[in-house]
Design brief:
The protein has 5 helices and 6 strands. It is α/β, with parallel strands linked by helices. The strands form 2 sheets. It has a 4-stranded parallel sheet with strand order 5-2-1-6, with helices on one face. Strand 3 and strand 4 form a beta hairpin. The N and C termini lie far apart (about 35 Å).
């Protein structure tokens, strides 16, 4: 039996081609959007995906303030944080967060869909979220993609 043919091909860092991708979050459902963003960040849409390497693209998300929630999540869902002091638990709904920090909602959802290890921190640095339709990454020439073509 020839065992040489069963070896897994791992791409080298120089072989990995990282692109810049632009995603418009306007009227997109948060969960579906963030799962597709995490899919692109990991590089699962590429033929040379390797689970232990950063093979994914850099993602730019615009219009984060125009994201949609299904059902009554806009008022019933709760984001919890703690100040570090006794009795310091703070609660916010997406409705309140959309006014103050709309980018946080998308970033929080995507971070939760990445693996829980050191690679996730590296992958999360490839995500840029902007509140409105303008972004400051024109020099990278991000290519706008249609989310319906993914998966």
């Amino acid at each position: 039996m020839n065992t040489q043919s069963y070896k897994t091909a791992t791409p080298s860092k120089s072989a990995i081609e990282k692109k810049w991708v632009l995603i418009d979050a306007e009227n997109e459902t948060l969960g579906r959007l963030s799962s597709k963003i995490a899919y692109i960040l990991r590089g699962k849409n590429k033929p040379h995906f390797s689970p232990h390497m950063d093979c994914g693209d850099n993602v730019v998300v615009i219009n984060a303030s125009k994201i949609n929630f299904t059902g009554k999540k806009m008022t019933d869902k709760v984001y919890v944080r703690h100040t570090g002091y006794p009795g310091g638990q703070r609660f916010r709904t997406p409705k309140e967060l959309l006014v103050k920090k709309p980018c946080f909602i998308v970033e929080h959802a995507v971070k939760g869909m990445l693996p829980k290890n050191k690679l996730a921190n590296q992958l999360f640095r490839n995500l840029r979220v902007f509140e409105g339709p303008e972004h400051n990454l024109e020099a990278q020439k991000p290519v706008k993609i249609n989310l319906n073509e993914i998966k």
